[in-house]
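Help! Submission page says 'invalid entity' but I think these are all valid:
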Amino acid sequence: MGPGGAGVGVAAGGRDVFDGGLRRKSQLIMAPAFFMMIVVLFPMALGPDQTVLNAVAPGLLVVAALLAALLPLDTLFRDDYNDGSFDLLMSGGAPLSLYVFGKITAYWLLTSLPLLIAAPVMMLVLDMPVIMAVPVLGALFPVTWLLNLTGAAGAALALGTRPGSVLLALLLIPFYIPVLIFGAAALDLTRNGVDAVTPMLLLWALLALALPVVPLVTAAMLKGLRE
Amino acid sequence: MNAAFVNFFTMANPARFRRIARPVLWLTAITGAVLFSWGLYLALVASPADYLQQEAVRIMYIHVPAAWMALMAYSSMALAALSFLIWRHTLAGLYIRAIAPVGAAFTATCLITGSIWGRPTWGTWWVWDARLTSVLVLLFLYAGIIALADAFDNREKGLKAAAWLSLVGVVNLPIIKFSVDWWNTLHQPASISSFSKMAEPAIDGTMLTPLLVMGGAYLCLFIVLAVLRTENEIMARRIENNRFRRAANG
């Protein structure tokens, strides 16, 4: 299980970016498209009043990011599980946690990065001042990472269940709630011109904690459920 | 290995569990019935109405023990999950499936009675207070565990996944416990926090006694439900095994 094994793990995760991801473009464009659709629906439902839109904008952006993050999760480990590459990985001795980390990184690049690029445009839709792009992106970056990390753990648990159920959402919502609260708070406080540093720092601290821990826990779950 | 541990391991055998379960069941059922009649009499008739809340305070005797049991059910489930994942105790796995709906029911009771209590005293059915929100999250967790345990074609796998989920969900327990101290929102802080404070509790003895009796009654109810449902799980597993065996033998 040397550095060579680590390379195998990351490459297996990264395969999705270049191979699976690009081949199934339509599936992966779904997440950012879904994010934009939700955000666009709200001005239509609430009316174009700027004060109303400004009041809901921070929470709305985070909720939309959360729902969009749920969409592609079902497929995160499913293909590797079904086509047998999973068994190869386990028997090959590559560290499973690095494989998980590679997968999460790949999915973040494919589904969350476009979402971050779309976010400033969505700020215009919600009538937010352009200068807000800095805190919005500063908060959405850790938020999307945390959503993907937590989601990976959930996807590992639900691996082998019937696809397309609401099970994954049911499992993950309790664990998404802290991310939602701190994410929305980081945006909301900036909007009111109050100190946004505390929730923002909490988000980044959560990310610093989750980044090493979640791949290890997820790998342990995958291993444990495989036996 | 000390005596407590030996006992713990022998209990993990389903056959031995069933032999011990019967007397325990009778004992707790009778004790529970006595405690419930005594506690409800104290709570609804003998205890005084509150100076501020008047008769509405009596909801406390249903609400607070339900909250205790909701947390206790979760803690016991998480312990069972741990021993299921580490030592693969068959019984511990069955206990997770058995107790999750019970815990969910206690949590729902806590939330519903709290809501009914909140209307006359707080003036609202629901507020997004830290305590209320974290207990709602507990209900979601229970729902997730119940759903996950049933989502697999392979029973064992469902139990394992549910065990993992209930272990990870333990992070919510301290948040519930300390939510009233960390966030200064509407829900009042704990009146009965530790045995050292029991000498001078924040509530009067005329209300503390019925509350503790009701707590005991709820505990008996919890044990009765836990034992009955675990027995049910054992029998369901046995029926399934028999069916497989019969199918295999043609």
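Support: the input was valid. A stray whitespace character was the problem, and the output above is from the cleaned input. Chain A has a mean pLDDT of 83.
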